[in-house]
């Protein structure tokens, strides 16, 4: 039986998830859409047989026709919809961020804990990427010894003029921050941010940014965000262990050797690099939702990401090392 999904916010990624739910994955029917721009919701619904348009996200969540909810509206609106889905007892997939303030993230955690079981999955798709899954398995196997350093690089060819230095942390490095927690199975305790000489292609933007995250167990995480690097969307990751090193391989399926050169394609954007990870992520959510369950990255993971990016923004502004202070982790999230 299909899960009847309602999608709130049908912009770029909302439409991409609808394509995924209706054309790529199995077990879902998109029965409802909503967007602050009603005409946009109507345009998207027209392409879906029988999908109903709701004037507000709250009405969509309350509808009996909707079993589970996808939240892909602007980040500022996520907490309201996630809280409404929890109140309705419906599984909800929320694109990152879970919420833009620590207070709102905490409210989601409190509501879910009061509900008594998990309903929220946050859109950290890298946890479903085959390369990162293999890297995690290598660490867990003990093949490279205890992990000491995670070097992560997040490189974009270019960003729009509206992109700010803070966004390099909040929108870009947030994925590396979550990945570090996933790979090292540990929590951050402090963040510092430095920048070298600016990339001249980025105007006044502090680009690249270099973030150093200290983990509770003593491991260090370095995150390079270079968002005007021209050559491609390149995601690098390397774990340095006590007895070995494991790195993400290149993501392209073939390499070409020709005219004394050795080459392969570098993806040009996150959709190309992580398309399959998004499919696996949403399929995992659907399979669990069909059982009335939620697995995957949790509201706790969303909360920690926001606490760390808040600390990172303060570190950019002050130039200081900023401690990361987390609330006590509720038992609901300990085994996940
Ligand atoms: P987008 O193209 O601007 O789409 C957002 C949509 O939500 C727009 O149609 C917007 O309408 C609508 N909206 C705004 N406020 C709303 C409200 N109160 N209720 C219902 N709809 C509302 O943005 P996007 O790029 O798709 O990003 C959406 C979210 O996904 C963001 O949180 C972003 O960080 C996240 N995202 C995650 C990844 C990832 O790597 N996991 C990648 C891309 C995006 P108007 O434009 O008419 O205002």
Share in helix: 25-40%
Count of distinct strands: 15
Low-confidence segments: none
Q: What is the typical, i.e. mean, pLDDT?
A: 97
Oligomer classification:
single chain
Biggest sheet: strand arrangement: 12-11-7-10-9-8-15
Compute the number of helices: 9
User: What would you call the shape?
Assistant: globular
Rg of Cα set: 20 Å
How would you sum up the major sheet?
7 strands, mixed
Would you give an account of this structure?
The protein has 336 residues and is of the alpha/beta class. The chain has 2 domains: 3-123 and 276-297, Rossmann fold, CATH 3.40.50.720; 127-269 and 305-323, Dihydrodipicolinate Reductase, domain 2, CATH 3.30.360.10. Helices cover 38% and strands 22% of the residues. The chain has 9 helices and 15 strands. It has helices spanning 12-24, 38-46, 57-62, 78-88, 102-115, 130-141, 165-184, 270-290, 299-318, and strands at 3-8, 28-34, 52-54, 68-71, 92-94, 120-122, 147-155, 188-194, 209-215, 220-226, 234-241, 245-247, 256-258, 261-263, 322-323. A 7-stranded mixed sheet has the order 12-11-7-10-9-8-15. Strands 3-2-1-4-5-6 form a 6-stranded parallel sheet, sandwiched between helices. Helix 1 links the parallel strand 1 and strand 2. Helix 7 crosses helix 9 (299-318). The longest helix has 21 residues, at 270-290. It is globular, with a radius of gyration of 20 Å. The two termini are 26 Å apart. NADP nicotinamide-adenine-dinucleotide phosphate binds next to helix 1.
């Amino acid at each position: 039986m299909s899960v009847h999904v309602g999608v709130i916010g049908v912009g770029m990624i909302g439409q991409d998830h609808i394509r995924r739910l209706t054309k790529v994955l199995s077990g879902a029917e998109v029965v409802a859409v909503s967007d602050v721009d009603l005409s946009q919701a109507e345009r998207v619904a027209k392409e879906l047989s029988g999908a109903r348009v709701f004037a507000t996200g709250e009405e969509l969540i309350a509808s009996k026709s909707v079993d589970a909810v996808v939240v892909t509206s602007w980040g500022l609106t996520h907490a309201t919809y996630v809280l409404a889905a929890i109140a309705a007892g419906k599984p909800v997939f929320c694109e990152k961020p879970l919420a833009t303030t620590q207070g709102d993230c905490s409210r989601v955690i409190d509501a879910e804990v009061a509900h008594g079981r998990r309903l929220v999955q946050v859109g950290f798709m890298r946890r479903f990427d085959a390369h990162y899954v293999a890297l995690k398995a290598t660490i867990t196997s003990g093949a490279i010894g205890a992990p000491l350093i995670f070097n992560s690089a997040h490189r974009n060819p270019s960003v729009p003029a509206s992109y700010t230095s803070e966004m390099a942390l909040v929108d870009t490095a947030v994925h590396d921050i979550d990945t570090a927690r996933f790979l090292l199975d540990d929590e951050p305790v402090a963040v510092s941010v430095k920048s070298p000489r600016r990339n001249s292609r980025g105007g006044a933007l502090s680009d690249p940014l270099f973030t150093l995250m200290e983990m509770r167990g003593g491991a260090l995480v370095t995150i390079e965000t270079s968002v005007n690097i021209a050559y491609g969307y390149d995601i690098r990751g390397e774990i340095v262990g006590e007895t070995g090193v494991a790195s993400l391989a290149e993501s392209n399926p073939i390499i070409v050797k020709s005219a004394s050169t050795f080459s392969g394609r570098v993806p040009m954007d996150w959709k190309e690099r992580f398309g399959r990870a998004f499919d696996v992520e949403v399929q995992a959510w659907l399979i669990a939702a069909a059982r009335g369950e939620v697995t995957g990255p949790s509201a706790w993971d969303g909360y920690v990401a926001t606490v760390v990016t808040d600390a990172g923004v303060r570190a950019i502004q002050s130039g200081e090392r900023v401690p990361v202070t987390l609330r006590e982790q509720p038992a609901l999230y300990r085994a996940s």
